[in-house]
Amino acid sequence: MSWEEATILLAGIATLGIYSFLIRENPFYRFFEHLFIGIAAGWGIVFSFKNFIWPDLMVPMLGLDIITFPDGTTSHPYNPWTLLYLVPMAFGLLFYFVYSKRHAWVAKLAIGFLLGMAGGAELEGFFNLILPQIVGSFKPLVVFDEGIVDWGASVTNWVFILTLILVMYYFFFTFSRRGIYAERIASGGRWLMMVCFGAYFGSTVMARMALLVERLQFLIAQWWPTVTGVLS
Amino acid sequence: MAVEHATLGILVLTLCMLLPVWVGIRRTRQGHQLFVRRIKAVDAVDEACGRAAEMGRPVSFSSGLTGISPVLYACLGVLFHVAKKAATFRSKLLVPQNDAQVLAVTEDVVRDAYRESGRLSSFDPKQIQFLSDEQFAFAAGYMGLVQRERIGSAFLLGNFAAESLMLAEAGQQMGAMQIAGTVNPEQVPFFICTCDYTMIGEELFGASAYLTREPVQLGSLYGQDRAKLMWLVLILAGTLVATWNSMGEVLGWPVIPNLEQLIIWKAW
Amino acid sequence: MRQRLIRIVTFIGGLYFFLRFVLPGDINGFQFARYNHEITNGFRAIGALTFGLGLINILLVHGSRLLFRRKGWFTSAALLFGLAFMLTVTIGEWLASARAAADADRLVMLREFAARIVADEKAGDSDPPYATRVALLLKNATLEVERVDQAARRENPAGDSAVMRGLRTELHAKINGLRGGLETISAGTAGPEALLPLAQQLSDVAATYRGILIEQHRAAVVSKLYTLLSDGLFMALGTAMFSLLAFYIASAAYRAFRIKSAESALMMTTALIVMLGQIPFGLWLWDGFPDVRMWLLTTPSTAARRAIEIGAAVAGLIMAFRMWFSVETQSFSRGER
Asked: What architecture is the B40-214 domain classified under in CATH?
């Protein structure tokens, strides 16, 4: 049996192990579930080292990116400021105090720093996300096409703006909804949200089915012939 | 329309959003009663905890793929409440995790909840279990865990991606009462189909205020609504200006620069 | 005291990114974000070593199960075995491929050297003298070419794959071209411009030689083991999990239709229209389905999504400021009061 055949056989058995969950949780699924978690953990550790810690932190700190030429000159001088990376790395180690009964509060320093960082960075993210959407919502309620009213586009824009207003209204928590119209407007927002969710639901169905088709094709066209080939 | 640096318009808008929050917090601290409309999903949190306790089955709380972010902070408020209930009712609480840093934060929060309930001795750090930071390994682990432990109630709050349906289906198959909440609109329909209650978008952020009735959180909710109202008015104004300009092109009216010019105007 | 310290550290954490956004890009020639890449790396470095938290948790939960033979010890053993095995194989594969890449890097170094000689000569900054450096370049390049030629030869070419045969032929041709290039350049007479084509030739030989090393590495046991684990298990399990969604989406849709509420009916009707707009059967039923689908996605769906996102973003921003200024006695710092 070649390595390629072994890989295909293993992939097929693992796939069937996962699919067995559709009947109910069972030892076959449980085995592959745990194996998956273990493999993902091992891969994740090396991935974070390989893709960030080593090339972006360790290599500049150790000067391993410096090339020495045959005449004794170097590609660039060593930058001692990179050693400052040790400070945040050491600070990040404070997370491990979460396992100490007496000094668990020390971990809150690192946690708090990250929470503060996320908080401070939010303003830029907010405006970069929201401003294009706000500006994109400035749609004219009367659209002209060569001097004549384009009713289709105009109605579309009316629907857009009304949907936006009604759904935003639904999410007001502290304005009391006095009167029958207030409750109906909020209800209208909820109905329009259902249209949105239905559209998302419908557009993901095809993609999910395609994934299943791909897996079934693998099992039928690659895995099964390999099984019969190995057994014969 | 990438915004690399704040302009005067952006700073003004930011202050206009934060000012009502400050006013709201002041008002609630002074004892003003604030109206907060009912959110069914949040009302059901206590019911879910009680149901699991009655059935003698564990409660699970998952923040999905949420990293260290404001969304996590919103989830922690509900987690604290649920952990206190679980401690009080002596229910087993399972908190499967996807992110190692979030693991440390949630362990801290759950420990504090048990401490505040006077049940610190019942707290077991192994309740907060790191599954995987890989999306589908996490989903596989969660699905297996909830079925083996036969959970009575499940909370799925935070950021979710494609695995949302799997997580919710696993609990559904166990007959667990499920409350979900996410800021990702694409995942909401799956939660609606599989969970008993779903918090949509910012309802997740209001959940903690609703549960705890803390003045600061209620005041923030007050400010949040006024900030949203400001954006709504801005959208309406921009729409009217766009309509004027559209009609003006044909009818010869003067063109008004739209609001985005004001917002992105660089004062320096 | 502890709470105050936590609050101060929390505030400092958010200061840089906030100021980077709020302050102008250039303040009288001083660029606030000049070292943005390095500072961002520094912030990322804080969380870099926290993978150990997950590892410790896994070892605590599953290690104790295995040690004390508690229920589920066998699957915990499988998890720990998978972890250790994958860790070993991935590290081995990384080191082996790095070693292979390093072998070709000597040619890359000579290319960089050639480019540096040209740049320094143009800047009038050649120390050691230009002729000495070119002589050193030629000597080292000649030795390196011979070494690569010897290393890339194979006693039994019949055992090579078609890809490998192609790479060896290509390398042989490029080495001959490089040898020709080296012969035409003689120390002291070659101007800097003559070194640029030589640098390009060195780069071409390095790229092809690296291709051969990668092919050789792929045939190694550690690489095949890595492929077995990554393709045979890791990717297969992930794809299988993802494909489970097809079953669950069908059961979710069935459940939604059964709920018999007007809202779920509206949701599933919209879903049905969007689905019909994507498939040939829908087009056969009515050729307007694709247009209706597109209108639903671009108009009410986009508008509703936008409204949800604006609300969530505003709430998130206010929550972010509360986090940053530690405004409330939330669950996070409660224990330190």
From this structure: 3-Layer(aba) Sandwich (3.40)
